[in-house]
Amino acid sequence: MSTTDTPPAGLRDFYEDPAVPVASGDARSLRQARMLADALGPAGGSPAVVLDVGCGDGTAARTAAPLLAGHRVIGVDWSQDALRRARTHLTDVVRGELTDGGLPLASGSADAVLFSEVIEHLVDPDSALDELRRVLRPGGHLMLSTPNLAAWYNRALLLAGVQPVFSEVSLRGIHGRPGTEVVGHLRLYTARALREFLTASGFRVVRVAGAPFHGVPRPLRALDRLACVRPSAASILLVHAVRT
């Protein structure tokens, strides 16, 4: 998804390009939405306020919508172009950033935050989590997803001296690893590092799950799905945490 901590000019131009891929596939979005729906429960007479922070073109919100019926989902992004595209999937969109109180919401006003494949793009993830914690109510839910540095195939690639999948050394091309798409990843996490980072940032990790990656070659996709049984080796990390 598009980043929301106002990247430098070169990165801004990169992320504004609609040709840049913004998600790892519907399987991840659907699993994440199910986790959030289970956490929130039915909307009933008290719908939750859910922020899709770094909503990009609204793809994750579109996938999650049937599972979050009755709840209010608000898309947030720094990119006006992304918000324009997101309006086709979201009724409410607002421009916001993830530094220095840049989200245009009152403290403690959100019940949940979807943070789908944003953190790996951020220059300053510490300030970003501080801002997410500010807008979440105590006990509010954070649903975060990000590529896994320790994915099962990355472990083998590193042993062979090959650059891990998801990691990038340039915005102009792929060097030293499989794949052809440059997506602007600045940071990568293992399950252990992500747990420790979230805990240090004022969240309690409830669950870590795994999701497959659509970019895995077709002959290996069954193995990729099987790896989700052990989230620390899955392609994509899905984390449910609550604000303490």
From TrEMBL:
Transmembrane segments: none annotated. Keywords: Methyltransferase, Transferase. GO terms for biological process: methylation. CDD domains: AdoMet_MTases. SUPFAM superfamilies: S-adenosyl-L-methionine-dependent methyltransferases. It comes from Streptomyces cavernicola. The keyword Nucleotidyltransferase does not apply. This is Methyltransferase domain-containing protein. GO terms for molecular function: methyltransferase activity. InterPro entries: SAM-dependent_MTases_sf (IPR029063).
